[in-house]
C-alpha cells in the first residue's frame, strides 16, 4: 500500500515584512483576485476570468511569478491559475497585476491540493510545476509534491491529450519525478531524445530559481508528460 503524506508540501510562508503599499494591496486586491473555494467551481473555468479565454492553464508554486506573468502577457486569451503559498511571492505578483492591469490571472495562496481537489474533472489545458521545493534530505522526500496521490489529482483535472510540465535543477528530484510520472498510468513521457529534456519550452522566460541554478552550476531539466 502506498504511504500517504498528510501535511503541507511547502516550507515557510513568510520572509521579510512587506512594505506598507504591498500590505495594502494584499488586503484589498488579493481577495478580488483569489479563487473562492467555498463555492463550487464553475464547470466552465473560463467563467472565472474577466476577459474571454479559450483555454485555462495552471501553475503550481509560481515562485517569483516570472513565468506566470510572462505567459499571461504573451497569451491574453488564456486564463491562468497561479498557486503560491509564500507571501512575498504572492505580493509581488499582486503588485504587478495591479500595475499592468492584467485580467487573465486568478490566484490562490495556500496548499495546491485544495485547488486540484476543487477544479472540475478534465478542466485544465496545460499544467506547470517549475522548480518546486526539492526537500533534498531523504527523510523529507515524502513531502515532495510529486507523489502518486497528487499525480492522481493532476490526472483528474488535466484534459486527456494535454500536457503536464515539470522543471527542476535537483538531480534526485528530476529522477524522482520522472519515475513517478512514468509509473503513473495517466502520464506518458514525451521525450524522444536527450535534447527534449535539456531545453526549456518555447518562449521560456527563465526564473530566478533557474538563474540561481546556473550560478551554482546545476543543470535544469525540463520534463513534458502527456495526459493520455
Q: What does this 3D model show about the protein?
A:
Helices cover 34% and strands 19% of the residues. Helix 1 (20-28) packs across helix 4. It is built from nine helices and seven strands; from the N terminus they run ααβαβαβαβαβαβααβ. The chain is globular, with a radius of gyration of 17 Å. It has helices at residues 20-28, 30-33, 66-74, 87-100, 112-118, 148-157, 171-183, 195-198, 208-215; strands at 55-60, 78-83, 105-108, 124-130, 158-168, 187-189, 221-227. With 228 residues, the protein is α/β, with parallel strands linked by helices. The protein has a single domain, classed as Rossmann fold, CATH 3.40.50. A seven-stranded mixed β-sheet has the order 3-2-1-4-5-7-6, sandwiched between helices.
Q: What's a quick, concise take on this entry?
A:
By secondary structure, the protein is of the alpha/beta class. The protein is built from nine helices and seven strands.
Amino acid at each position: 500500500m502506498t504511504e500517504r503524506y498528510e501535511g503541507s508540501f511547502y516550507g515557510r510562508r513568510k520572509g521579510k515584512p512587506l512594505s506598507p503599499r504591498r500590505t495594502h494591496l494584499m488586503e484589498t486586491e488579493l481577495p478580488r483576485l483569489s479563487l473562492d473555494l467555498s463555492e463550487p467551481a464553475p464547470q466552465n473555468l473560463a467563467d472565472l476570468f474577466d476577459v474571454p479565454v479559450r483555454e485555462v492553464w495552471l501553475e503550481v508554486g509560481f515562485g517569483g511569478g516570472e513565468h506566470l506573468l510572462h505567459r499571461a502577457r504573451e497569451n491574453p486569451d488564456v486564463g491562468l491559475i497561479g498557486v503560491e503559498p509564500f507571501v512575498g511571492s504572492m505580493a509581488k505578483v499582486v503588485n504587478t497585476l495591479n500595475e499592468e492591469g492584467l485580467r487573465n490571472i486568478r490566484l490562490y495562496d495556500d496548499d495546491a491540493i485544495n485547488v486540484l481537489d476543487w477544479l472540475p474533472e478534465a478542466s485544465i489545458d496545460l499544467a506547470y510545476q517549475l522548480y518546486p521545493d526539492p526537500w533534498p534530505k531523504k527523510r523529507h522526500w515524502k513531502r515532495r509534491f510529486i507523489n502518486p496521490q497528487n499525480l492522481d489529482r493532476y490526472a483528474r483535472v488535466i484534459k486527456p491529450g494535454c500536457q503536464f510540465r515539470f522543471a527542476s535543477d535537483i538531480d534526485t528530484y528530476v529522477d524522482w519525478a520522472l519515475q513517478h510520472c512514468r509509473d503513473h498510468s495517466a502520464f506518458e513521457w514525451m521525450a524522444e531524445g536527450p535534447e527534449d529534456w535539456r531545453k526549456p519550452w518555447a518562449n521560456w522566460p527563465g526564473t530566478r530559481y533557474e538563474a540561481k541554478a546556473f550560478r551554482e552550476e546545476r543543470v535544469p531539466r525540463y520534463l513534458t508528460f502527456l495526459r493520455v
